[in-house]
Design a protein that fits this description.
Elements lengths: L1 E4 L4 H12 L5 E4 H4 L3 H11 L1 H4 L5 H5 L2 H6 L3 H10 L8 E3 L5 E3 L3 H5 L4
Parallel strand pairs: 1-2
Antiparallel strand pairs: 1-3, 3-4
């Protein structure tokens, strides 16, 4: 499995701790260090829709100029912003071995991985 996120994010920390507690192997992809490709964003958007990944509740969004916020009206605009400011992506994004994408920390959803 692969977990995408930012190491200092509390939700990502909670997820990584959960994986360690349950002794599940994973690879961690740090958005800040490694960025994110438009191909990967496209893959996720095909599965869950691009709007799902754009975190409009977080500090990064709230700190954006209102004109920039209003300019994000389509997938291409959102992807450009996500690549420049990857902390605006909701996290963690978990890619399971079966190809399922889990967004955020949801213990019930994660527990399904153990079955």
């Amino acid at each position: 499995m692969k977990i995408y996120g930012i190491p200092n994010c509390n939700t990502v920390k909670k997820t990584l701790d959960w994986f360690k507690l349950h002794q599940l192997d994973y690879e961690f992809h740090d958005f800040k260090k490694l960025g994110i490709s438009s191909e990967k964003l496209e893959e996720w958007a095909d599965e869950l829709g691009w709007e799902t990944f754009l975190n409009k509740r977080g500090t990064t969004w709230k700190m954006l100029d209102a004109d920039i916020q209003r300019s994000i009206v389509c997938k291409a605009d959102a992807f450009k912003l996500m690549q420049v400011k990857p902390s605006i992506i909701k996290r963690p994004v978990i890619e399971t071995d079966s190809g399922t994408i889990i967004l955020g920390f949801n213990e019930d959803q994660l527990s399904e991985l153990l079955k």
